[in-house]
């Protein structure tokens, strides 16, 4: 057991000690009281994670509640025909994809509590505006602006969480973060069910109230987020000086093991194959996640349920997905393994798509079961794939880029999901299910590429084939290119 520090060091002195240790060839083990460490982790779990859960839940709800609004009369009132609904979905992803990396780089330069609260407030205002649109063109324009604000909420939250935890502590926290999206999906269905009864109030249709009420809640919480969200670990005001010193020390030890990249290095950031494989892996599963969130209410109506009933029947689907997500992510964390769990999720989703592709003549219960497998698949694979990449990139800048690239570029899967469910193919959606099953299998293939790539690279490092990097000018800024960094499977 490590001995406690006899006298708590001032934070600035501890920072200097940490910095010097990271650049020392001997890399001495920093000592701190394990009881204080437990208290620090507990405080982080209570102060870092909860606000990001709420932030993601509300931003995600604002992103997908158009699916609930659709079956309450959105398309009819705005005279939307053909692919109009698909275009309204995909337009959000254009700024979403383009601005996620710039957003994370902006957040690196300013307080996360300020930047993320501004983004969430903007999401709420744009969502409210959708409740007042009068034409299809106005809806598309507001959805584009919503995408601008949505762009930074996801990768920004993950980036912030990742800076407070050691890399093997991260997956469990990210699984909770993704579970908040599941809760948002379930709560969105319940809320839409309640709001549907407001149809006609003050002359507004029920679908308008969905946007207005949910947007108002998001905007109000966005203001509160400025005072609830934490900032970077060096500025953690919720910790005592002694606790902050311990937190910085434990993070330093972790970063010493994974090596540092605290200065921007274009070559090491942009030429890392893991970022692109991780993004493609995420791209394939994102299609499934958005397909289910956008189209489950519609699919349930086409199965014979009334619009109000369909809102309620989405709730058990998300509840089961939440249980599987937390359970398997917990096991993945304990076993320090990702690959097999991703393959399990892919297999589960494959079964669901096969059922829906062959649904003619099947009872409604079988088709309803398929929706359970698809949503569960998405919420197993997504958090584990994000954790897997975060576990295998080292350094402040590298993590900022990798989290934004994976989630930002990977969200192009949402564009695909927006366009493959063709109205004229209802209720069988052969194109939608066919493309989705192909992309799901693509995720499985990319996870295999990631696994074997990491295995081979670890073997090269074990043989000393990467040791030459320690002799270069940038030897103190290698990130995960440091040959002492061992990749996680």
UniProtKB/TrEMBL annotation:
GO terms for molecular function: transmembrane transporter activity. SUPFAM superfamilies: MFS general substrate transporter. The keyword Chaperone does not apply. The chain crosses the membrane at residues 86-107, 114-133, 145-164, 176-195, 207-229, 273-290, 310-331, 338-356, 368-389, 401-422, 434-456. Signal peptide: none annotated. It is a multi-pass membrane protein. Keywords: Membrane, Transmembrane, Transmembrane helix, Transport. It is found in: Membrane. Its main location: membrane. InterPro entries: MFS, MFS_trans_sf. The keyword Protease does not apply. GO terms for cellular component: membrane. PANTHER family: PERMEASE-RELATED, TRANSPORTER, PUTATIVE (AFU_ORTHOLOGUE AFUA_1G11820)-RELATED. This is Major facilitator superfamily (MFS) profile domain-containing protein. It comes from Zasmidium cellare ATCC 36951.
């Amino acid at each position: 057991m490590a001995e406690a520090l006899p006298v708590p060091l001032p934070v600035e002195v501890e920072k200097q000690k940490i910095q010097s240790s990271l650049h020392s060839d001997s890399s001495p083990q920093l000592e701190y009281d394990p009881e204080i460490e437990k208290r620090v982790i507990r405080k982080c779990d209570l102060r870092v994670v909860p606000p990001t859960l709420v932030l993601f839940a509300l931003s995600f709800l604002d992103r997908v509640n158009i699916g609930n609004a659709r079956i309450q009369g959105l398309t009819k009132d705005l005279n939307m025909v053909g692919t109009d609904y698909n275009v309204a979905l995909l337009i959000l992803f254009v700024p979403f994809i383009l601005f996620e990396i710039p957003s994370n780089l902006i957040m690196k330069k300013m307080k996360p509590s300020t930047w993320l609260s501004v983004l969430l407030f903007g999401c709420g205002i744009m969502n409210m505006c959708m409740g007042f649109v009068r034409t299809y063109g106005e809806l598309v324009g507001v959805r584009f602006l919503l995408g601008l604000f949505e762009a930074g909420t996801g990768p920004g939250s993950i980036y912030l969480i990742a800076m407070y935890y050691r890399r093997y502590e991260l997956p469990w926290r990210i699984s909770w973060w993704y579970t908040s999206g599941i809760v948002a999906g379930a709560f969105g269905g319940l809320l839409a069910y309640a709001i549907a009864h407001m149809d006609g109030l003050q002359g507004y249709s029920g679908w308008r109230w969905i946007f207005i009420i949910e947007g108002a809640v998001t905007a109000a919480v966005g203001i509160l987020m400025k005072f609830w969200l934490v900032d970077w670990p060096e500025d953690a005001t919720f910790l005592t000086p002694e606790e902050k010193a311990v937190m910085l020390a434990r993070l330093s030890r972790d970063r010493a093991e994974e090596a540092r990249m605290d200065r921007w290095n274009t070559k090491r950031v942009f030429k890392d194959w893991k970022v692109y494989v991780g993004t493609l892996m995420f791209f394939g599963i994102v299609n499934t996640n958005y397909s289910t969130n956008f189209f489950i209410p519609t699919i349930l109506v086409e199965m014979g349920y009334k619009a109000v009933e369909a809102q309620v029947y989405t709730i058990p689907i998300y509840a089961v997905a939440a249980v599987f997500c937390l359970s398997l992510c917990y096991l993945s964390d304990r076993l320090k393994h990702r690959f097999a769990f991703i393959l399990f999720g892919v297999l589960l989703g494959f079964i669901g798509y096969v059922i829906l592709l062959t649904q003619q003549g099947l009872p409604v219960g079988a088709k309803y079961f398929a929706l359970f497998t698809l949503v569960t698949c998405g919420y197993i694979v997504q958090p584990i794939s994000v954790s897997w990449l975060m576990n295998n990139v080292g350094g402040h800048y590298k993590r900022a880029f990798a989290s934004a690239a994976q989630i930002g570029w990977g969200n192009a899967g949402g564009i695909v999901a927006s366009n493959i469910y063709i109205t004229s193919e209802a209720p069988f959606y052969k194109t939608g299910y066919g493309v989705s099953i192909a992309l799901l299998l693509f995720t499985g293939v990319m996870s295999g590429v990631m696994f074997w790539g990491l295995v081979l690279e670890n073997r090269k490092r074990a043989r000393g084939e990467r040791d030459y990097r320690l002799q270069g000018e940038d030897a103190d800024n290698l990130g995960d290119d440091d040959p002492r960094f061992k990749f996680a499977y």
